[in-house]
UniProtKB/TrEMBL annotation:
<dbReference type="GO" id="GO:0016757">
    <property type="term" value="F:glycosyltransferase activity"/>
</dbReference>
<keyword id="KW-0808">Transferase</keyword>
<keyword id="KW-0735">Signal-anchor</keyword>
<keyword id="KW-1133">Transmembrane helix</keyword>
<keyword id="KW-0472">Membrane</keyword>
<keyword id="KW-0812">Transmembrane</keyword>
<dbReference type="InterPro" id="IPR050748">
    <property type="entry name" value="Glycosyltrans_8_dom-fam"/>
</dbReference>
<comment type="pathway">
    <text>Glycan metabolism; pectin biosynthesis.</text>
</comment>
<dbReference type="Pfam" id="PF01501">
    <property type="entry name" value="Glyco_transf_8"/>
</dbReference>
<feature type="signal peptide">
    <location>
        <begin position="1"/>
        <end position="24"/>
    </location>
</feature>
<protein>
    <recommendedName>
        <fullName>Hexosyltransferase</fullName>
        <ecNumber>2.4.1.-</ecNumber>
    </recommendedName>
</protein>
<dbReference type="InterPro" id="IPR029044">
    <property type="entry name" value="Nucleotide-diphossugar_trans"/>
</dbReference>
<comment type="similarity">
    <text>Belongs to the glycosyltransferase 8 family.</text>
</comment>
<keyword id="KW-0328">Glycosyltransferase</keyword>
<dbReference type="InterPro" id="IPR002495">
    <property type="entry name" value="Glyco_trans_8"/>
</dbReference>
<keyword id="KW-0325">Glycoprotein</keyword>
<keyword id="KW-0732">Signal</keyword>
Length: 369
């Protein structure tokens, strides 16, 4: 109890002195587990068969030997992101050749500096870069969704990877934060995008594709003809291999934005950032084996009920949907498959939060900006 009161007193003092700048005080001592953040991950090294880096002293994102992985990074899903990174490294044949591109929200309670320090302390040898995603880039294009979490501007960062990442990065794997990889990510990286396709992802052609759009969309001959020359199948945008050269040349960011502008006027779908991708790419996606996205483990977008695995081998487990494994585990109400996520969890304490009108204090950073 004394340590909790001490933490509260420190947070209050910080707020009174410098509320706009105090975003990361860590509690010291005490055995209550508050504010201790993440454990340091084991050191994962390359095998002898791995390609050598151009510069062994300083790793550049432009190094052609690298595998590029892009993810979002924010305080709400941080625990999931850290577990996802850990899983990628743990199963990679060449972990030192992986470069992570983290997209951070402009107004997240945890600043990019705080996030960078946390990632570095958890993965001391990780090759990574953090980019700030300006929310005003997309905020006026976002419409209401079936679940409020889907309206987070950071969900739309994947639309802007061609603009955010360095021009020398011509290919990237995009991964959501609520998944773990249980296979060598090099296998996914080596996916060939044929016939000038821009993205690759597991497709699910048995799904009822019509449900992703409104009756008004399907009854409008001008809008619905977008699929006239295609055989569209549902795919989940949480796991994608993206050719950024073709993406930039084809200005696909603008194509997605055009559909978002129509949505603001006509209301043609309910599911946030997914439908614009379907409108632009469905029917022209490089089909990747289903093992690379065993999605839906978080249940639906309303109840978040337990789900079982799809038949077949598994390389990636994805808790898309409302239910997240770290939340259910902490609530002592886990689904059976949540225990498959648990071995990658490096979190070792609860977040210390003190809400005010201007700031949120996070227990994992340990310093003042």
């Amino acid at each position: 109890m004394r340590s909790i009161l001490h933490a509260a007193a420190v947070l209050l003092l910080c707020y009174l002195i410098s509320a706009p700048f105090c975003v990361g005080i860590r509690t010291i001592g005490g055995g209550d587990g508050l504010g201790f953040g993440f454990s340091e991950a084991p050191e994962y090294r390359n095998g002898v068969e791995c390609p050598a880096s151009v510069n062994k002293e300083v790793v550049s994102a432009c190094d052609p030997s690298l595998v590029h992985v892009a993810m979002t990074l924010d305080s709400e899903y941080l625990r999931g992101s850290i577990a996802a990174v850990h899983s990628v490294l743990r199963h990679a044949s060449c972990p030192e050749n992986i470069f992570f591109h983290f997209i951070a929200a402009e107004f997240d309670p945890a600043s990019p500096r705080v996030l960078s320090k946390l990632v570095r302390s958890t993965f001391p040898s990780l090759n990574f870069k953090i980019y700030i995603f300006r929310e005003d880039t997309v905020i006026n294009l976002i419409s209401s969704s079936i679940r409020q979490a889907l309206e987070n501007p950071l969900n739309y960062a994947r639309n802007y990877l061609g603009d955010i990442l360095d021009v020398c990065v011509d290919r990237v794997i995009y991964l959501d934060s609520d998944l773990v990889v249980v296979d060598d990510i090099m296998k996914l990286w080596n996916t060939t995008l044929t016939n000038s396709r821009v993205i690759g992802a597991p497709e699910y052609c048995h799904a009822n594709f019509t449900k992703y759009f409104s009756d008004g969309f399907w009854s409008d001959p001008v809008l619905s003809r977008v699929f006239q020359s295609r055989k569209p199948c549902y795919f989940n945008t949480g796991v994608m291999v993206m050719d950024l050269v073709r993406w930039r040349e084809g200005n696909y960011r603008k194509r997605i934005e055009n559909w978002m502008e129509i949505q603001r006027k006509r209301r043609i779908y309910d599911l946030g950032s997914l439908p614009p991708f379907l409108l632009v790419f469905a029917g022209n996606v490089e089909a990747i084996d289903h093992r690379w996205n065993q999605h839906g483990l978080g249940g639906d977008n309303v109840r978040g009920s337990c789900r079982s695995l799809h038949p077949g081998p598994v390389s990636l487990l994805h808790w898309s949907g409302k239910g997240k494994p770290w939340v259910r585990l902490d609530d002592r109400k886990p689904c059976p498959l949540d225990h498959l996520w648990e071995p990658y969890d490096l979190y070792k304490g609860k977040l210390v939060k003190a809400h005010s009108s201007s700031s949120i204090f996070l227990g994992f950073s340990g310093y003042l900006l």
